TrEMBL record:
Belongs to the LOB domain-containing protein family. GO terms for cellular component: nucleus. This is LOB domain-containing protein. The lineage of its organism: Eukaryota, Viridiplantae, Streptophyta, Embryophyta, Tracheophyta. GO terms for biological process: hormone-mediated signaling pathway; positive regulation of DNA-templated transcription. Residues 1-80 form the LOB domain.
Amino acid sequence: MSRRNEKNGCRRAAHFAAIHKAFGASNASKLLLQLLVSDRPEAALTISFYEAPARLQDPVYGCVSHIFALQQQILTLEAQ
């Protein structure tokens, strides 16, 4: 295995660990199985890069808290 593949493997392992910790591997798999096969790769990336880390930071709201914060910034900027 080349060093490049080893680095990618470590990144994948870290993302899988975040998914496993946030949702559980079985639940993440069940979520993906409910989607069309063509939509699964994008959903897997979204879960691994956005949803799982956000859920670890904020277990109740997850990425919704980020969306809410951005909406508040927009409202503040529009009011100026």
